[in-house]
Specification:
This protein is 64% helix and 0% strand. It is built from 13 helices and no strands. Helix 4 crosses helix 7, helix 8 crosses helix 9 and helix 8 packs parallel to helix 10.
């Protein structure tokens, strides 16, 4: 660190701060989204309307102008796990869905469908057909519980979000907006870490906290260092004097580790992250 110039150090800190506050994107996680490029085989495999789906479409819709909108809701939900408007669907997907069911591809009609009462009714029909549940209070409770449990072993928000997505999908819940997942994952991570910190803080008591605080106090030592400085030093060379110092240090460590039992209830991986 000493060899870097003042400008280098400033640049390093600026990059660190910028990286920390960059907004996490759905592409950083397992949150489903449309691929930027789709080959024909993928269109045929994932976005071709089947006979069973056509029958459902005919049952749920009353006019030909809403058939394509319903089919887009159905096929895109199957790939994403949440509903999107027709404007959010890539043209290649919308055109293929229209072709596979023999409907004309009309953007104006789809835009009208996006704001229609029929679309709102069709959401329920698609959920019923796919046997999925809307993201309501039960889904929120499951998401928060999952995030809290994940935060016991994960520190990266990306990992916590991915576990939440997997759990919601497994329990057949519609996925919420990505910002909802991001916000709740951060909240639960903070709450979980704070609860663990508080658990140790309270278990230490006044005497234990004072004991640990003294390790960081620079006393009358002419070297002007704290006891913690000596504890964290690497072992000396394996000479007679070095081994003598090592034995003395080991004799001190059991006394200093008198509160180590307090972290036994905390997952090892969380302690390593800290």
């Amino acid at each position: 660190w000493a060899i870097f110039s003042v400008q280098d150090k400033r640049t390093f800190f600026l990059y660190s701060i910028t990286f920390r506050f960059l907004k996490l994107q759905p592409s950083d996680t397992a949150y489903p989204r449309f691929k930027s490029r789709l080959v024909q085989s993928e269109l045929e495999r994932f976005y071709t309307v089947t006979d069973v789906e056509l029958a459902c479409c005919d049952t749920a819709t009353r006019s030909s102008t809403t058939r394509l909108g319903f089919a887009l809701l159905l096929k895109t939900y199957q790939r994403l796990g949440y509903f999107v408007t027709s404007e959010q669907v890539p043209n290649a997907i919308a055109e293929h869905v229209a072709t596979s069911m023999g409907e004309p591809y009309d953007l104006d009609i789809l835009r009208q469908y996006d704001v229609s009462q029929a679309r709102r009714k069709h959401l329920s029909a698609v959920r019923e057909f796919l046997a999925v549940k809307p993201f309501g209070d039960d889904g929120k409770a499951l998401m928060r519980q999952t995030f809290a449990e994940a935060a016991l072993t994960k520190e990266d928000v990306i990992d916590i979000i991915n576990i939440g997505i997997e759990t919601l999908v497994r329990h057949r819940y519609e996925l919420p907006a990505f910002d909802t997942l991001l916000r709740e994952a951060r909240v639960e991570r903070i709450a979980t870490n704070q609860a663990l910190h508080t658990q140790i803080h309270d278990a230490l008591g006044d005497a234990g906290r004072a004991f640990l605080d003294k390790l960081f106090v620079v006393g009358d030592d002419p070297r002007r260092v704290s006891p913690w400085n000596d504890i964290k030093q690497d072992a000396a060379k394996p000479t007679i004097d070095g081994m003598r110092d090592l034995v003395e240090r080991y004799d001190r460590l059991p006394e200093l580790a008198c509160h180590a039992d307090l972290v036994k209830t905390i997952p090892d991986i969380k302690i390593k992250q800290w």
